[in-house]
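Hi there, hope your week has been kind to you so far. Thanks so much in advance, here it is.
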Amino acid sequence: MGYETTMTETLETPAALRAFLQGRYGRPDADGMIPRERVEMALHHQQPDRVPFDFWGVPEVYDLLRDRLGVESDEEVLRLMGIDCRMVAPDYVGPAPRVQPDNTYYDAWGTHRRSISNDFSTYDEYASHP
């Protein structure tokens, strides 16, 4: 029985996968550094205890991860995966995007975007370059 088979059998349930991730990454206060320190050191060109992790996923990916891990929140997914960075942004309260006849749009920053759908998700990408 190889390592791959053992890992697959061991991590079949959400509880087992959560326990595995908890032991590897999911205890940010038990590591040598907290995520903020790790990111700040990297930004200052200093050597942190490990490379800071970042993760961006479309909503469908977060849905799958929450389901597979058996957790309720995106924050819990990020914590279990050892993700150090978080997106921080205020709610947008400005004018609506300017939608074009071809269903592309210009967002608040003047960026020309379009929604793309595939078998797995829907996401926005650049429709043209500045």
